[in-house]
């Protein structure tokens, strides 16, 4: 899948409902199966994230990335790896997402080339503008609400989120603590979508949770 999917018109917004994996919620299930349930529910973008405290052997991580990547291609959904350029390239992923404390955005762009997607986390207008300048295709901005998924997450208030959306020309996805109950509070911010973990993968019925969250998000994006 070419990264131009992020800029094409006439197709559904690929950043509308961005799902980030977390095996903490598997409870004996396969990650592949949970991701497929989310895709069946309408998830439009998938990021494979393996946290440091659940580190996998390289070969296992690569095999998982290839498997999830193939699944995303089946559903024609972009697939990126969190903070691991080597795995992303080896697995043939569509791109990489990096945080401010990870590999510098310009270096990532140089490593992955121009044809892959580069997402960058940002918390301020300055960080957002720098990421855009260094080749980011989209920004993940947050945490917009308190979150337990990332213990060191910085908070971003609504006005900062709106200021970032106004300052950059690339799409902005809100991240951090978003649920079906609070997503409407993001209306009017200028975001093009939301990125979630537990709002999908911690739910008993993943497909139904994805469907409901996508519909709520569509309402605030399309007005």
From TrEMBL:
<dbReference type="InterPro" id="IPR022998">
    <property type="entry name" value="ThiamineP_synth_TenI"/>
</dbReference>
<dbReference type="InterPro" id="IPR013785">
    <property type="entry name" value="Aldolase_TIM"/>
</dbReference>
<keyword id="KW-0460">Magnesium</keyword>
<feature type="domain" description="Thiamine phosphate synthase/TenI">
    <location>
        <begin position="17"/>
        <end position="200"/>
    </location>
</feature>
<keyword id="KW-0808">Transferase</keyword>
<feature type="binding site">
    <location>
        <position position="121"/>
    </location>
    <ligand>
        <name>4-amino-2-methyl-5-(diphosphooxymethyl)pyrimidine</name>
    </ligand>
</feature>
<dbReference type="GO" id="GO:0000287">
    <property type="term" value="F:magnesium ion binding"/>
</dbReference>
<dbReference type="GO" id="GO:0009229">
    <property type="term" value="P:thiamine diphosphate biosynthetic process"/>
</dbReference>
<dbReference type="InterPro" id="IPR036206">
    <property type="entry name" value="ThiamineP_synth_sf"/>
</dbReference>
<feature type="binding site">
    <location>
        <position position="102"/>
    </location>
    <ligand>
        <name>Mg(2+)</name>
    </ligand>
</feature>
<feature type="binding site">
    <location>
        <begin position="47"/>
        <end position="51"/>
    </location>
    <ligand>
        <name>4-amino-2-methyl-5-(diphosphooxymethyl)pyrimidine</name>
    </ligand>
</feature>
<feature type="binding site">
    <location>
        <begin position="147"/>
        <end position="149"/>
    </location>
    <ligand>
        <name>2-[(2R,5Z)-2-carboxy-4-methylthiazol-5(2H)-ylidene]ethyl phosphate</name>
    </ligand>
</feature>
<dbReference type="Pfam" id="PF02581">
    <property type="entry name" value="TMP-TENI"/>
</dbReference>
<comment type="pathway">
    <text>Cofactor biosynthesis; thiamine diphosphate biosynthesis; thiamine phosphate from 4-amino-2-methyl-5-diphosphomethylpyrimidine and 4-methyl-5-(2-phosphoethyl)-thiazole: step 1/1.</text>
</comment>
<keyword id="KW-0784">Thiamine biosynthesis</keyword>
<dbReference type="GO" id="GO:0004789">
    <property type="term" value="F:thiamine-phosphate diphosphorylase activity"/>
</dbReference>
<comment type="function">
    <text>Condenses 4-methyl-5-(beta-hydroxyethyl)thiazole monophosphate (THZ-P) and 2-methyl-4-amino-5-hydroxymethyl pyrimidine pyrophosphate (HMP-PP) to form thiamine monophosphate (TMP).</text>
</comment>
<dbReference type="InterPro" id="IPR034291">
    <property type="entry name" value="TMP_synthase"/>
</dbReference>
<comment type="similarity">
    <text>Belongs to the thiamine-phosphate synthase family.</text>
</comment>
<keyword id="KW-0479">Metal-binding</keyword>
<feature type="binding site">
    <location>
        <position position="82"/>
    </location>
    <ligand>
        <name>4-amino-2-methyl-5-(diphosphooxymethyl)pyrimidine</name>
    </ligand>
</feature>
<dbReference type="GO" id="GO:0009228">
    <property type="term" value="P:thiamine biosynthetic process"/>
</dbReference>
<dbReference type="GO" id="GO:0005737">
    <property type="term" value="C:cytoplasm"/>
</dbReference>
<feature type="binding site">
    <location>
        <position position="177"/>
    </location>
    <ligand>
        <name>2-[(2R,5Z)-2-carboxy-4-methylthiazol-5(2H)-ylidene]ethyl phosphate</name>
    </ligand>
</feature>
<feature type="binding site">
    <location>
        <begin position="197"/>
        <end position="198"/>
    </location>
    <ligand>
        <name>2-[(2R,5Z)-2-carboxy-4-methylthiazol-5(2H)-ylidene]ethyl phosphate</name>
    </ligand>
</feature>
<feature type="binding site">
    <location>
        <position position="150"/>
    </location>
    <ligand>
        <name>4-amino-2-methyl-5-(diphosphooxymethyl)pyrimidine</name>
    </ligand>
</feature>
<feature type="binding site">
    <location>
        <position position="83"/>
    </location>
    <ligand>
        <name>Mg(2+)</name>
    </ligand>
</feature>
<protein>
    <recommendedName>
        <fullName>Thiamine-phosphate synthase</fullName>
        <ecNumber>2.5.1.3</ecNumber>
    </recommendedName>
</protein>
């Amino acid at each position: 899948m070419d990264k131009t999917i992020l800029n094409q018109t006439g197709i559904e917004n690929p950043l509308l409902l961005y799902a980030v994996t977390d095996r903490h919620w598997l409870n004996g299930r396969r990650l592949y199966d949970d991701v497929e349930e989310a895709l069946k529910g309408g998830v439009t973008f998938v990021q494979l994230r393996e946290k440091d405290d659940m580190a996998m052997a390289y070969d296992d991580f690569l095999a998982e990335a290839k498997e999830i990547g193939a699944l995303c291609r089946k559903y024609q959904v972009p697939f990126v790896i969190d903070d691991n350029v080597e795995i992303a390239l080896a697995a043939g992923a569509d791109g990489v997402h990096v945080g401010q404390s990870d590999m510098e955005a310009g270096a990532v762009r140089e490593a992955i080339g121009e044809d892959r997607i580069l997402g960058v986390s940002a918390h301020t207008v300055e960080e957002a503008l720098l990421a855009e300048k260094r080749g980011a295709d989209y920004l993940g901005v947050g945490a917009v609400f308190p979150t337990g998924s990332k213990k060191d997450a910085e908070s971003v208030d609504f006005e900062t989120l709106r200021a970032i959306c106004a300052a950059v020309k690339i799409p902005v996805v809100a991240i951090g603590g978003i649920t079906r109950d609070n997503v409407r509070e993001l209306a009017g911010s200028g975001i093009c979508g939301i990125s979630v973990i537990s709002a999908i993968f911690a739910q008993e019925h993943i497909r139904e949770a994805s469907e409901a969250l996508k519909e709520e998000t569509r309402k605030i994006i399309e007005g």
